[in-house]
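Reminder to self: tokens first, then the designed residues, so the page reads top to bottom the way the pipeline ran.
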């Protein structure tokens, strides 16, 4: 029964994460990517905080100095680096391409889980990963890629750091009396505090000019609340409360009870589900080239799913 609830959490995380690019595009560029991260993780962290404090009370656990260090590391990897780089990459490359590249965090997550969490990787999992990776690379078409190199580098960096974030989050939950909600909520708020430092530094002329000189104008003169109005507040709240608050909470609740390789299905399904959501809400049409790549991703995801279904006893 416990794993059945975890499976529901995987579905919820998948739906929320897959709708993120469409939500960002629907804002029509009203928000700076770093500004958007600051607001959404601040709101998401505050929403989860009452639940986190209640969990600490039930566990009769008092936070230690080492826990705050874990929150700082978690927040830096997720909020400051991974998500900031990811939302920034959407400004340089198509949102759909970013979603595909970011799905590569699955491979890093599974490799890191085998090293840090000692989770075994069987032959079928390797085959599933190889098929899905082929699908992702087919869509990106690196040998004839027409796009921004900065956008690709930002997105790949985001994927690597998110993999570290996910695996370390599960490791922290295993090695302490803190639940995933506690780690997620406090990690969000610590990350927001760290991000605020970056925002303040971006207003220093020398630093602002440096970012501009290397083509990272989104990291220069970052606003905090500018651009928010009645026409886009609902989109901002969906990203903050839904995608960030409920999405990440669901992801880590699933992480507590399922192997990383299974929860990583979220990011294999995302490249398939995201264009469907994009077509429904903003009428983006999927090309035949992308459909062929998505077919391989679906095949790999199915192998991964059924290989681990019996293991998790859902």
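Designed residues (314 positions):
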């Amino acid at each position: 029964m416990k794993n059945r609830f975890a499976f529901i959490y995987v579905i919820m995380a998948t739906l929320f994460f897959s709708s993120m690019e469409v939500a960002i595009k629907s804002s029509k560029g009203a928000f700076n990517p770093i500004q958007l991260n600051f607001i959404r993780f601040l709101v998401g962290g505050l929403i989860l905080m009452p639940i986190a404090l209640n969990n600490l009370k039930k566990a009769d656990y008092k936070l230690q100095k080492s826990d705050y260090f874990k929150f700082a590391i978690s927040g830096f990897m997720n909020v400051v680096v991974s998500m900031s780089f990811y939302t920034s990459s959407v400004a340089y490359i198509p949102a759909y391409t970013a979603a595909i590249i970011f799905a590569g965090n699955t491979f890093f997550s599974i490799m890191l889980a085998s090293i840090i969490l000692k989770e075994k990787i069987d032959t079928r999992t390797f085959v599933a990963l190889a098929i899905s990776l082929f699908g992702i690379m087919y869509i990106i078409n690196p040998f004839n890629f027409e796009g921004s190199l900065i956008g690709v580098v930002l997105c790949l960096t985001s994927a690597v750091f998110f993999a570290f974030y996910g695996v370390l989050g599960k490791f922290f939950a295993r090695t302490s009396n803190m639940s995933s909600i506690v780690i997620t909520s406090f990690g969000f708020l610590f990350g927001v505090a760290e991000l605020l430092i970056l925002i303040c530094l971006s207003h220093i002329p020398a630093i602002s000019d440096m970012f501009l000189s290397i083509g990272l104008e989104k990291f220069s003169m970052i606003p905090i609340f500018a651009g928010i109005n009645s026409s886009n507040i609902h989109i901002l709240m969906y990203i903050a409360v839904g995608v960030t608050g409920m999405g990440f909470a669901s992801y880590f609740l699933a992480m507590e009870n399922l192997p990383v390789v299974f929860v990583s299905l979220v990011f294999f399904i995302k490249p398939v589900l995201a264009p469907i959501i994009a077509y429904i809400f903003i009428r983006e049409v999927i090309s035949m080239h992308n459909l062929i790549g998505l077919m391989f991703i679906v095949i790999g995801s199915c192998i991964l799913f059924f290989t681990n279904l019996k293991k998790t006893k859902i």
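The radius of gyration is 19 Å.
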